[in-house]
Amino acid sequence: MASESGKLWGGRFVGAVDPIMEKFNSSIAYDRHLWEVDVQGSKAYSRGLEKAGLLTKAEMDQILHGLDKVAEEWAQGTFKLSPNDEDIHTANERRLKELIGETAGKLHTGRSRNDQVVTDLRLWMRQNCSKLSTLLWELIRTMVDRAEAERDVLFPGYTHLQRAQPIRWSHWILSGAIAGNPLGVDRELLQAELNFGAITLNSMDATSERDFVAEFLFWASLCMTHLSRMAEDLILYGTKEFSFVQLSDAYSTGSSLMPQKKNPDSLELIRSKAGRVFGRCAGLLMTLKGLPSTYNKDLQEDKEAVFEVSDTMSAVLQVATGVISTLQIHRENMARALSPDMLATDLAYYLVRKGMPFRQAHEASGKAVFMAETKGVALNQLSLKELQTISPLFSGDVSHVWDYGHSVEQYAALGGTARASVDWQIGQVRALLRAQQA
Questions:
Q1: Given 52, 175, 258, 273, which residue has the most CB atoms within 10 angstroms?
Q2: What tens digit of pLDDT does each residue of 107-155 get?
Q3: Domain named Argininosuccinate lyase C-terminal: which ranges (predicted)?
C-alpha cells in the first residue's frame, strides 16, 4: 500500500491510500505542463509573504533561489518525480524542501492548492493563448495573401452542394479568414507580479469558477467549426469530380494498395479534430453544471481538456496554414465549371431592373430554365423570341446577363463578391493584421 509520508494532507489520516485510488487521484501526468507557471506563482507569493512579515528577507531569498533551481531542473529535463507527487504543486514543493530544507514549508502559509491551481492555469492559458493567437493570425495572413493574389479567379458558389452562382475564389477564401481570436496576503501585489489585469472580486468564486476555461474551449470549438467547414470544402474541391484545387504532396498521403491515390489526410484530420475539441468543451460543461460552490476535485478534469485542446489547436492552425500556402488552384477547371443556368438569378434581376416585382421575375426566370431544360439547350441559348413568350420585358440587352464577370460585379455591397467589395474585405483584414502587430 502507498505510504502517506510526505503528503501535504497526511496528518489527519491513518493508514495508506489504496494504490488504485492513488493513481486515480493523481494529475501529475498532465498538469506537469504547469511547472513553469507554478514556479512563477510561488515566487510571486513568496514576495507577498515577505511583504506581509511572514517571511524574512533571507527566507524569501532562500525560497526564490530554490525555486530557480527547481525551474532549472524542469527546463533541463532532470527533475525526478516521486510516487507521492499527486500534482505539480506537491512535486515542486517536495523538491524545494529537498533543496532548501524546512524553510520550504513556509511557502504554503495561507495558500491552498485550490488557489495555486487556478492561478497556474490562468497564467498558463494566458501564455498559451498568446501563442495560439500568433498562429491564428499567421493563418489569416496566409489566407488574405492568397485572396489578394487570386481575386480575379471565378468559380461556382454552392448551396446544398448544388452550383448556385458565380463567385470569386478570393471571396470564398475570405469567408474563412476571420474565425475569432482568443483573448484577450497582498493580492494587488500578486496581481502586479503576475501581470494580471485585475484581481477576482470574490475568493469563493476565484477558486471554483472556470469561465475562463470554458471561454477558451468555446473559442476553440468555434474556430474548429470554421476550419472544419473549410477543410470539407477543400476536400470536395480536390476530388476528381471537382478538380478545382490540388493539395501539395507535403500535406497529402498515398494508398498502400492503390498507387494512383493522393489522399487529403491533412484536411480530413483537421475536420476530425473538431469532434475532439467539441467533446472536450461539452465534457467540461457537463462537469461544471452539477458542482456545488467553491472548489471540488471534479475541477481537476479542466486541465486535461485545456492541454489537449491547446495542443490540437496549435497543430491544426499550423497545418491549415501550410495547406493554404501551398494549395494549387486549377483556374481552367474552375472556369469550365461555370454554366449559364447559374445566371438564372441574374436573369430575374434583369427583369427587376425593368420594373417587374421580384417574385414575378423569379417565376419568369424559372420558366426560362424549364424551357431550356425541355428543349435540351443551355439557358443562354434561348432566343429572344422564346424569352419574350415568357415576358415582353426581355429585349436585346438581355445578352449582357450571360457574362460571368458582369454577374459577380453586380454584388458590390460590402461583403459581396464584386472586385471592389473583395478589395474592401482584403483591406479590412489587412487593417486587423496591422492592429494586431501594433
A1: 273
A2: 988 887 777 888 888 888 888 888 999 999 999 999 999 999 999 999 9
A3: 342-409
What span, in angstroms and rounded, lies between the C-alpha atoms of 236 and 219?
26
All three cell numbers of 222? 468555434
Q: What is the dihedral of CA 231, 237, 239, 242, to 10 degrees?
A: 160
89 and 205 belong to one structural domain: no
Q: How far apart are CA 363 and CA 267, in angstroms?
A: 40
pTM of the model: 0.81
The C-alpha cell 424569352 sits at 387
Decide: 398 and 361 in contact? Cβ < 8 Å: no
Specify whether 391 is located in the same domain as 352.
yes
> Cα 368 from chain centroid?
45
Residue type, 5: S
Nearest to 25 by CA among 16, 33, 36: 16
Nearest to 328 by CA among 149, 189, 125: 149
- Type of residue at 394: F
Residues in the chain: 438
> Cell 498568446 identifies what position?
130
Could you list the residue range(s) of the whole structural domain that residue 420 is in? 340-437
Q: Which residues are catalytic?
A: 160, 255
Q: Which residue has the cell 478534469?
A: 301
Of 336, 360, 380, the position where a domain reaches its end is 336
Which set of grid coordinates corresponds to residue 230? Answer: 473549410
Q: Three cell numbers at 347? A: 436573369
**Secondary structure, 3-state, 246-304:** ECCHHHCECCCCCCCCCECHHHHHHHHHHHHHHHHHHHHHHHHCCCCCCCCHHHHHHHH
Q: Is 327 left (phi over 0), alpha (psi -120 to 50) or beta?
A: beta
Q: Within its chain, how far is the Cα of 10 from the centroid?
A: 42
Antiparallel, parallel or unpaired: β 154-159 and 162-168: antiparallel
Neighbours of 431 (CB within 10 A): 10
Is the Cα dihedral 50, 55, 61, 67 positive or negative? Answer: negative
Contact by Cβ (8 Å): 232, 271:
yes
Using an 8 Å Cβ cutoff, are 120 and 128 in contact?
Answer: no
Q: For the chain, percent helix, then strand, then coil, each to nearest 5?
A: 65, 5, 30
**Which residue, among 48, 56, 212, has the nearest Cα to 119 in the 3D structure?**
212
Burial track 118-139 (b if 16+ CB lie within 10 A, e otherwise): bbbbbbbbbebbeebbebbbbb
Give the DSSP letter of residue 244: S
Amino acid occupying residue 80: K
Residue 332 has pLDDT above 90, yes or no: yes
Instruction: Kindly indicate the confidence band of residue 162, based on its pLDDT and cuts at 50, 70 and 90.
Output: confident
Total domains in the chain come to: 3
